[in-house]
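In this section we walk through a basic example: taking a raw amino acid sequence and producing a predicted 3D structure, encoded as discrete structure tokens. The instruction is simple. Fold the sequence below.
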Amino acid sequence: MKKQHHKELLMIHWKNAGSGDLLLLKSIKVLLRGHPRLMAFLFHPTEARLKASPKELLYKASAFSSGEYILVQVALDFWDGSGDALLSDLYATLDGDAYFQVLMAIESLKGREIKSIDFNLANEKPAAGYQNLAN
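The resulting token sequence is shown next.
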């Protein structure tokens, strides 16, 4: 029974959704990878809409962990700008995996995909116009 419930959480099949809504949904799925419960919490399973008002969703999400709450905020910001996520909360609260999911989701909104980030700054070349700052 638990396995069946998990499958239900992953199933969002919107009818008559526009391409913009589907792109947002795809990016939010990237954001919430590993958190299928949050997808089911946020979205109606068959219609391209939230399950409730953003204000109500944020209120209910306040019972979640601080990391999950921030992911809900970011998902709402992607959807309609109503999440009020703060960058300072992202880097102060999210663990490395969740923070990376946020970055991947942002890139997916732009139609790109990142697989990893090289944090070795010694290999970086300064952007044009910033050569003097690197010295």
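Looking at the output, two observations stand out. The CA atoms of residues 121 and 134 lie 11 Å apart. Confidence is low (pLDDT under 50) at residues 1-10. In the next section we compare this with other chains.
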